[in-house]
Amino acid sequence: MLTYVLRRLLLVLVVVWGAATLAFGLLYLSGDPVNLLLPLDASPEAREDLRRAYGFDQPLYVQYGRYLIKLTRGDFGTSLRSEEPALDLVLVRMGPTLLLAGWGLAFAVALGVPAGVLAAVRKGSLAELATMTLALLGQSIPVFWLGLMLILVFGLELRWLPISGAGSWKHLILPTITVGTFVTASIARLTRSGVIQELRSDHVRTARAKGLAGRVVVYKHALRNAAIPVVTIIGLQLGALLSGAVITETIFAWPGIGRFVLIAVSQRDFPVVQATVVVFALLLALVNLIVDLAYLWLDPRVRYA
Amino acid sequence: MRKIGILLVFILAALPAWAAGDTLVIAQGVDATTLDPVNHQETPTGNVTAQIFDNFYRRTPDGKYEPWLGEAKALDDLTWELTVRQGVKFHNGEELNAEVIKFNFDRLLNPDKPLKYSTYFKPIKSVEVTGPYTLKVTTAKPFPLFLTRLTYFWVVPKQYIEEKGDAYFANHPVGTGPYKFVRWVKDQEIVLEANEDYWAGKPKIKKVVFRPIPEASSRVAELMTGGVDIITNLAPEAVDVVNGSGVAEARTVPSIRNIFVVLDVKGEGPLHDPKVRQALNYAVDKKAIIEHVLGGNGVPVGCPLNPYIFGYDEKLCEPFPYDPAKAKELLAEAGYPGGFSFTMGSPSGRYLNDRQVAEAIVGQLAKVGVKVDLRVQEWSSYVGQILERKIPTDAWLIGWGNAQFDADNTLFTLLYGGTVEGGPPQTRFSYWADPAFDKAVLEAQSVVDQTKRQALYKKALERVRAGAPWIFLHQQKDIYGVNKRVKWQPRPDELIWAFDAEIVK
């Protein structure tokens, strides 16, 4: 078990190095950031000065070498736009994004799992039809459209909730619904099919035959087994949540990493983009590891060597 | 039901409470990148720092410049005497004097650590303190733009920066301006409070908050709920909605930005012929574009300058009339009676409905037989190609905001062709090379006398009019959404200066 975890952690490092290298290469192919940093009428000498100050006048392998060496110390350099440490800028904005993604996920699980169970238990009823229709809608509605509709209804018409910015729990409600809806729908549909399958299985029939209450059968016997694919999808959806957060953050002016990195990309702020890519790669690799470990807990038959 | 009622009351009690009382909330598309006033390149950042800092010369709302933290006088072509305003204090109590101004120049001119505004002060050779409030500035060559460049000279505190360092200063700014820095929550809000001891008078508004709201429709929604007071870059399509809201209204101002199509005049193709280029200018219906594509938010122009800019000449800048018959005639004279085809680039989303403007031009040129293959690109790679002169098209639509309000910034940067012997090499933008034009523009760079400069620019504009190196389109209008409770008029230089604003109800 310990060797497995250690091996996986080593793999995480490889993933991070790969992502860092890819980010470095692609950014340098995209062109010179100095042009975007200075006014259009800046003199060629001014451009040269800045290029030298940032080390862009060095050969590519020197720049890459320096980049990797600094990376091992957790140093991504300073942002070309604000001249602050890139990693700090990214981490400051990672908090709100993780908060939003976390709430989105919690919302999705809290709503999606019971909805899926309900649809499975009441198969063929109106409740199932309604739940699954909503789930289908939830998966088909574009994130930006949902966000704008929520703003229109709850912000402009009803004036119940703040429609942009952050600062209080109320600011979280609309973005959470926006970012969580797609995942809620996926979880609901997956839970439903998983539970239906489990309810048909032998061990559930046995449990029922033993005279256990319907609720216990569903939650203890069927749901636990049905949860494995759901956990997998939660792990996979974290990526979707984080990328959905880019759109949601833009619509609701949420101070997260999503739109920050969008600007950084368009301005070719190399250090910031690189730091973001590496932090995201690390995060997703770790989440994958956690998901794999969660299988162990859910299904004692799973053993990792 | 009762539970829902309680929930509703709870939610209603929690409405955003910002834009109320004596707080002015300004929403821009992006957050500031730094609060160091001389080390950024973005208007949204400049709008924040302009509240906290003062510049040595300031730009008046009608685009003229005037002394502000001090005055400069030309002693001869190469020497300037600067007198610093007395009795001005920074927010931390530090006093403004000649030493502080010298520190500011040294900071800008330090070659080891160039700041983004350093480029504006390159011609300065040395700065010498001559008294407690006086300095002498010597330039390497005549520097007629010195006064206008002093509007970029935002004064920062010496002691504070020496003690705390540049990085700390950029996040915790201290200036002499009308508002003091309170806090900055990145991408969320920047809060400022009135500097009651401001040397130019007490600000009328107590608190100013800047909020970044990137999505245009969210900005409009916030404006209409009263969550913010001023929003920038209101889309022409949203003007009616805002005006009909009863809460806010659209206010516009012709900006310093001109929109035009640069024509690649080098080589031997049709665009090489001035007659063809004139024809293209006659073939584009500027008024129709402004009315139908920009919702009226533009003013047609017939030269690279606009009325705010020193060197502008009303007669030489008159828009080319829409005259397709004349265009056809000129094309026939040039040997293209059946028209010709060329490629044109355009950015999308950088200027007011830029792509749609380009599409309209394509349609109008087709009417005189000129076929245009339009290629739309994302801004950062578009501008990169232009700066690196790797432009894949024969023409490209671009805008130019002459933030220096001086013809040199447009004519030299964009049109100078480097034909003058011993002069600087060709600049980046245009392939147009007209010796008489180049001579006039270059000469204007070394004349401090403004009347003489005006005459030189007139000569230059005559050449531009004849050579028609661009399709001249329009001067863009900036559109703001403003809550009706705010007394404030937009300025051509895109600056939102809260000191000029007032909350009236």
TrEMBL record, chain A:
The keyword Protein biosynthesis does not apply. Its main location: membrane. It comes from Oceanithermus desulfurans NBRC 100063. The keyword Nucleus does not apply. This is Peptide ABC transporter permease. Residues 94-291 form the ABC transmembrane type-1 domain. Keywords: Cell membrane, Membrane, Transmembrane, Transmembrane helix, Transport. InterPro entries: BPD_transp_1_N, MetI-like, MetI-like_sf. SUPFAM superfamilies: MetI-like (SSF161098). It is a multi-pass membrane protein. Pfam families: BPD_transp_1 (PF00528), BPD_transp_1_N (PF19300). It is found in: Cell membrane.
TrEMBL record, chain B:
GO terms for molecular function: peptide transmembrane transporter activity. The keyword Signal applies. Keywords: Signal, Transport. Residues 1-19 form the signal peptide. One of its GO terms (cellular component) is ATP-binding cassette (ABC) transporter complex. GO terms for biological process: peptide transport. Residues 65-418 form the Solute-binding protein family domain. It comes from the Bacteria. Belongs to the bacterial solute-binding protein 5 family. This is Glutathione ABC transporter substrate-binding protein.
